[in-house]
Amino acid sequence: MNAERAPILELLAQCRADMEAMEQAARELAALRSQAPNPVEGSREVILYGYNLHQWYNAAENALLRIARHFGNEIERTEWHRGLLERLKLEVPSLRPRVIREATFEHLNALRGFRHVFRHTYGYALKWALMAPNVERLPDAHRALTEDLDRFFAFLQGLAGE
User: Fold this and answer.
1) Which residue has the higher pLDDT, 2 or 87?
2) Domain count, the chain
3) At 92, is the secondary structure helix, strand, or coil?
4) First vs last Cα of the chain: how many Å apart?
């Protein structure tokens, strides 16, 4: 194997593992939506919704962070979560195409906001009324990011000579 191909192939493998984690969280959310479409505030189901939204976003962000690091995108420590999304919606001529479209950015940015709330609630009860729009958004976000990553993976495979 060509030594120059190895990092690209490793990036693809790692991102595909992240995508599988996203897929698992999306399946869990879909199952939960059919079992408990309108959960009671403070219920186990509300916690499960929050957990799976959080898991999905973390897996998505991990894949995007791997891509950014591979292409030398330095992400500033302040507001790096948003900065990551901002950078990856840009094409970098002679280096890489954009990774995510504007519409995907909008979905991810909304879910990023929920992730922040989920991680920093410090014991406060999750509010279904605030979470429900993100649950509704997830299928479209998942589809959009999957399409974007598949397109970007084709670019990577071209770089690897596959």
Assistant:
1) 87
2) 1
3) strand
4) 12
